[in-house]
Amino acid sequence: MASASKVFPSARAALEGIVADGMTIMCGGFGLCGIPENLILALRDSGVRNLTVISNNAGIDGQGLGLLLETRQIKKMIASYVGENREFERQYLAGELEIEFNPQGTLAERIRAGGAGIYGFYTKTGAGTVVAEGKESRVVNGETYILETGLTADVALVKAWKGDTEGNLIYRKTARNFNPVMATAARITVAEVEHLVGPGELDPDCIHTPGIYVKRIIQGERYLKPIEQRTVRKRTAA
Protein backbone atom coordinates (compact mmCIF):
# COMPACT_ATOMS: atom_id res chain seq x y z
CA MET A 1 0.00 0.00 0.00
CA ALA A 2 1.14 3.53 -0.73
CA SER A 3 2.16 5.58 2.27
CA ALA A 4 1.01 9.14 2.93
CA SER A 5 4.54 10.22 2.03
CA LYS A 6 5.76 10.46 -1.54
CA VAL A 7 8.89 8.54 -0.54
CA PHE A 8 8.90 4.80 -1.19
CA PRO A 9 11.48 2.32 0.10
CA SER A 10 12.29 0.72 -3.24
CA ALA A 11 11.63 0.90 -6.97
CA ARG A 12 9.44 -2.18 -6.71
CA ALA A 13 7.29 -0.58 -4.01
CA ALA A 14 7.04 2.67 -5.99
CA LEU A 15 5.54 0.85 -9.01
CA GLU A 16 3.22 -1.38 -7.01
CA GLY A 17 -0.42 -0.77 -7.85
CA ILE A 18 0.19 1.75 -10.64
CA VAL A 19 1.55 -0.33 -13.54
CA ALA A 20 -0.56 -2.76 -15.56
CA ASP A 21 -0.68 -4.54 -18.89
CA GLY A 22 -1.38 -2.35 -21.89
CA MET A 23 -0.24 0.93 -20.31
CA THR A 24 1.54 3.81 -21.98
CA ILE A 25 4.76 4.64 -20.15
CA MET A 26 7.22 7.48 -20.67
CA CYS A 27 10.84 6.78 -19.79
CA GLY A 28 13.39 9.56 -19.44
CA GLY A 29 16.94 9.47 -20.71
CA PHE A 30 18.99 9.96 -23.85
CA GLY A 31 20.93 6.90 -24.86
CA LEU A 32 22.01 5.62 -21.46
CA CYS A 33 22.35 9.11 -19.96
CA GLY A 34 19.80 10.02 -17.31
CA ILE A 35 17.80 6.80 -17.51
CA PRO A 36 15.85 5.60 -14.45
CA GLU A 37 17.90 2.42 -14.04
CA ASN A 38 16.24 1.14 -10.88
CA LEU A 39 12.70 1.82 -12.08
CA ILE A 40 13.36 0.09 -15.42
CA LEU A 41 14.55 -3.01 -13.57
CA ALA A 42 11.48 -2.91 -11.32
CA LEU A 43 9.21 -2.52 -14.37
CA ARG A 44 10.84 -5.57 -15.93
CA ASP A 45 10.43 -7.59 -12.75
CA SER A 46 6.77 -6.56 -12.43
CA GLY A 47 6.01 -8.69 -15.47
CA VAL A 48 3.58 -6.20 -17.07
CA ARG A 49 3.24 -6.67 -20.82
CA ASN A 50 1.92 -5.10 -24.02
CA LEU A 51 3.39 -1.74 -23.08
CA THR A 52 3.55 1.32 -25.30
CA VAL A 53 6.77 3.08 -24.33
CA ILE A 54 7.57 6.69 -25.20
CA SER A 55 11.29 7.35 -25.04
CA ASN A 56 13.95 9.00 -27.16
CA ASN A 57 15.50 5.58 -27.73
CA ALA A 58 15.23 2.01 -26.53
CA GLY A 59 18.51 1.64 -24.70
CA ILE A 60 21.01 -0.91 -25.97
CA ASP A 61 21.18 -4.68 -25.78
CA GLY A 62 21.21 -5.61 -22.11
CA GLN A 63 20.91 -2.03 -20.82
CA GLY A 64 18.08 0.42 -20.24
CA LEU A 65 14.87 -0.33 -22.12
CA GLY A 66 16.76 -3.06 -23.93
CA LEU A 67 15.99 -5.17 -20.86
CA LEU A 68 12.25 -4.88 -21.55
CA LEU A 69 12.73 -5.76 -25.20
CA GLU A 70 14.53 -8.94 -24.19
CA THR A 71 11.53 -10.02 -22.11
CA ARG A 72 9.04 -8.98 -24.84
CA GLN A 73 7.20 -6.59 -22.54
CA ILE A 74 7.09 -3.74 -25.06
CA LYS A 75 4.43 -3.86 -27.78
CA LYS A 76 5.07 -0.43 -29.31
CA MET A 77 7.83 2.19 -29.17
CA ILE A 78 7.26 5.88 -29.83
CA ALA A 79 10.83 7.02 -30.27
CA SER A 80 13.38 8.98 -32.26
CA TYR A 81 16.69 7.10 -32.30
CA VAL A 82 17.00 3.34 -32.02
CA GLY A 83 20.21 2.57 -33.87
CA GLU A 84 22.16 0.96 -31.01
CA ASN A 85 19.89 -2.01 -30.29
CA ARG A 86 20.14 -5.25 -32.28
CA GLU A 87 17.18 -6.85 -30.52
CA PHE A 88 15.06 -3.82 -31.36
CA GLU A 89 16.05 -4.19 -35.00
CA ARG A 90 15.34 -7.91 -35.00
CA GLN A 91 11.88 -7.55 -33.45
CA TYR A 92 10.92 -4.71 -35.79
CA LEU A 93 12.02 -6.50 -38.96
CA ALA A 94 10.24 -9.65 -37.78
CA GLY A 95 6.99 -7.72 -37.29
CA GLU A 96 7.03 -8.32 -33.52
CA LEU A 97 7.34 -4.65 -32.50
CA GLU A 98 5.39 -1.57 -33.58
CA ILE A 99 7.33 1.67 -34.08
CA GLU A 100 6.20 5.26 -34.37
CA PHE A 101 9.28 7.21 -35.41
CA ASN A 102 9.53 10.93 -34.63
CA PRO A 103 12.09 13.58 -35.49
CA GLN A 104 13.86 14.23 -32.20
CA GLY A 105 12.75 17.83 -31.75
CA THR A 106 9.20 16.88 -32.70
CA LEU A 107 9.19 14.14 -30.07
CA ALA A 108 10.36 16.56 -27.38
CA GLU A 109 7.73 19.13 -28.38
CA ARG A 110 4.95 16.53 -28.53
CA ILE A 111 5.74 15.56 -24.94
CA ARG A 112 5.98 19.18 -23.83
CA ALA A 113 2.65 19.92 -25.51
CA GLY A 114 1.02 16.96 -23.78
CA GLY A 115 2.23 18.19 -20.41
CA ALA A 116 0.97 21.70 -21.16
CA GLY A 117 -2.49 20.52 -22.18
CA ILE A 118 -1.97 21.47 -25.83
CA TYR A 119 -3.75 19.19 -28.30
CA GLY A 120 -1.29 19.70 -31.14
CA PHE A 121 0.94 22.06 -33.08
CA TYR A 122 2.05 22.68 -36.64
CA THR A 123 5.68 22.21 -37.65
CA LYS A 124 7.65 22.26 -40.90
CA THR A 125 9.78 19.35 -39.70
CA GLY A 126 8.95 16.25 -41.73
CA ALA A 127 6.79 18.03 -44.30
CA GLY A 128 7.09 16.37 -47.70
CA THR A 129 8.53 13.16 -46.21
CA VAL A 130 7.11 9.87 -44.93
CA VAL A 131 6.80 11.57 -41.52
CA ALA A 132 3.88 13.57 -42.94
CA GLU A 133 1.93 10.58 -44.26
CA GLY A 134 -1.61 10.47 -42.87
CA LYS A 135 -1.24 13.80 -41.03
CA GLU A 136 -3.16 17.01 -41.55
CA SER A 137 -1.17 19.72 -43.29
CA ARG A 138 -1.60 23.36 -44.22
CA VAL A 139 0.35 25.97 -46.16
CA VAL A 140 1.30 29.21 -44.38
CA ASN A 141 3.25 31.92 -46.20
CA GLY A 142 4.19 29.42 -48.85
CA GLU A 143 5.56 26.86 -46.36
CA THR A 144 3.94 23.49 -45.66
CA TYR A 145 3.34 22.58 -42.02
CA ILE A 146 2.11 19.28 -40.60
CA LEU A 147 0.01 18.75 -37.49
CA GLU A 148 1.66 16.84 -34.66
CA THR A 149 -0.38 15.90 -31.60
CA GLY A 150 0.68 16.11 -27.97
CA LEU A 151 1.75 12.97 -26.12
CA THR A 152 0.68 11.88 -22.65
CA ALA A 153 1.16 8.69 -20.65
CA ASP A 154 -0.29 6.74 -17.78
CA VAL A 155 3.04 6.67 -15.95
CA ALA A 156 6.32 8.55 -16.41
CA LEU A 157 9.58 7.15 -15.04
CA VAL A 158 12.23 9.84 -14.61
CA LYS A 159 15.72 10.10 -13.15
CA ALA A 160 17.16 13.12 -11.33
CA TRP A 161 20.43 13.88 -9.63
CA LYS A 162 18.92 15.28 -6.47
CA GLY A 163 15.41 15.50 -5.06
CA ASP A 164 13.63 16.23 -1.82
CA THR A 165 10.91 14.31 -0.04
CA GLU A 166 8.27 16.63 -1.54
CA GLY A 167 9.25 15.53 -5.06
CA ASN A 168 11.14 18.62 -6.18
CA LEU A 169 13.86 17.57 -8.63
CA ILE A 170 17.20 18.83 -9.91
CA TYR A 171 18.82 17.18 -12.94
CA ARG A 172 22.55 17.21 -13.62
CA LYS A 173 23.87 18.52 -16.91
CA THR A 174 22.95 16.46 -20.00
CA ALA A 175 21.14 13.88 -17.84
CA ARG A 176 18.38 16.49 -17.79
CA ASN A 177 17.39 15.68 -21.43
CA PHE A 178 13.81 14.34 -21.74
CA ASN A 179 13.18 13.95 -18.01
CA PRO A 180 11.63 17.38 -17.19
CA VAL A 181 9.06 17.36 -20.00
CA MET A 182 8.07 13.76 -19.31
CA ALA A 183 7.54 14.55 -15.64
CA THR A 184 4.73 16.92 -16.64
CA ALA A 185 3.03 14.71 -19.22
CA ALA A 186 1.87 11.64 -17.29
CA ARG A 187 -0.99 10.89 -14.96
CA ILE A 188 1.51 9.55 -12.41
CA THR A 189 5.20 10.47 -12.35
CA VAL A 190 7.64 8.32 -10.42
CA ALA A 191 11.15 9.71 -9.89
CA GLU A 192 14.36 8.11 -8.76
CA VAL A 193 17.20 10.27 -7.49
CA GLU A 194 20.81 9.78 -6.55
CA HIS A 195 20.51 12.04 -3.50
CA LEU A 196 17.33 12.42 -1.46
CA VAL A 197 17.17 15.35 0.94
CA GLY A 198 14.65 16.95 3.24
CA PRO A 199 12.27 19.82 2.42
CA GLY A 200 13.99 23.19 2.17
CA GLU A 201 17.42 21.75 1.40
CA LEU A 202 17.19 22.49 -2.33
CA ASP A 203 17.72 26.02 -3.63
CA PRO A 204 14.29 26.96 -5.04
CA ASP A 205 15.93 28.78 -7.96
CA CYS A 206 17.69 25.56 -9.01
CA ILE A 207 14.64 23.26 -9.09
CA HIS A 208 13.85 21.97 -12.58
CA THR A 209 10.73 19.90 -11.80
CA PRO A 210 8.39 21.17 -9.08
CA GLY A 211 7.17 18.52 -6.67
CA ILE A 212 3.54 19.03 -7.73
CA TYR A 213 4.28 16.86 -10.77
CA VAL A 214 5.86 13.99 -8.83
CA LYS A 215 3.64 11.47 -7.05
CA ARG A 216 6.27 8.97 -5.90
CA ILE A 217 10.03 9.16 -5.35
CA ILE A 218 12.81 6.77 -4.39
CA GLN A 219 16.52 7.02 -3.73
CA GLY A 220 18.17 4.81 -6.34
CA GLU A 221 21.11 2.57 -5.71
CA ARG A 222 23.93 0.71 -7.45
CA TYR A 223 24.05 2.97 -10.49
CA LEU A 224 26.10 1.57 -13.35
CA LYS A 225 26.10 4.70 -15.54
CA PRO A 226 27.43 2.82 -18.59
CA ILE A 227 28.89 4.72 -21.54
CA GLU A 228 27.06 3.96 -24.77
CA GLN A 229 29.86 4.96 -27.14
CA ARG A 230 33.27 5.34 -25.55
CA THR A 231 35.47 7.73 -27.50
CA VAL A 232 38.94 8.56 -26.28
CA ARG A 233 41.81 10.56 -27.69
CA LYS A 234 44.94 8.67 -28.61
CA ARG A 235 47.94 9.40 -26.44
CA THR A 236 50.56 11.61 -28.03
CA ALA A 237 54.26 11.19 -27.58
CA ALA A 238 55.70 13.21 -24.71
Report on this model:
The longest helix has 13 residues, at 104-116. By secondary structure, the chain is of the alpha/beta class. It has 6 helices and 11 strands. Strands 1, 2, 3, 4, 8, 9, 10 and 11 form an 8-stranded mixed sheet that branches. The chain has helices at residues 11-15, 37-46, 66-70, 86-93, 104-116, 179-184; strands at residues 24-27, 51-54, 74-79, 98-101, 120-123, 137-140, 143-149, 153-164, 169-170, 186-197, 216-219. Strand 8 and strand 9 form a beta hairpin. The mean pLDDT is 94. The chain has one domain (11-118, 151-219): Glutaconate Coenzyme A-transferase (3-Layer(aba) Sandwich).
Question: Which features characterize this protein?
Answer:
11 strands, 238 residues, globular, eight-stranded mixed beta sheet, alpha/beta, Glutaconate Coenzyme A-transferase, 26% strand, 20% helix, 6 helices
Précis, in short:
The protein has 238 residues and is α/β, with parallel strands linked by helices. Helix content is 20%, strand content 26%. It has one domain: Glutaconate Coenzyme A-transferase (3-Layer(aba) Sandwich), CATH 3.40.1080.
Number of helices: 6
Largest sheet: 8 strands, mixed
Low-confidence stretches: none
The SSE order reads HEHEHEHEHEEEEEHEE
User: Radius of gyration over alpha carbons?
Assistant: 19 Å
The amount of helix comes to 10-25%
Query: How many angstroms does the end-to-end distance come to?
Result: 62 Å
Using the coordinates shown, work out and report the CATH topology: Glutaconate Coenzyme A-transferase
Q: Which structural class is indicated by helix and strand composition?
A: alpha/beta
Estimated share of beta-strand residues:
25-35%
CATH architecture: 3-Layer(aba) Sandwich
Q: State the name of the first-level CATH class.
A: Alpha Beta
Please indicate the count of domains: 1
Query: Based on DSSP secondary structure assignment, what is the total number of beta strands?
Result: 11
- The CATH homologous superfamily name equals Glutaconate Coenzyme A-transferase
* Chain-averaged pLDDT: 94
Structural shape? globular
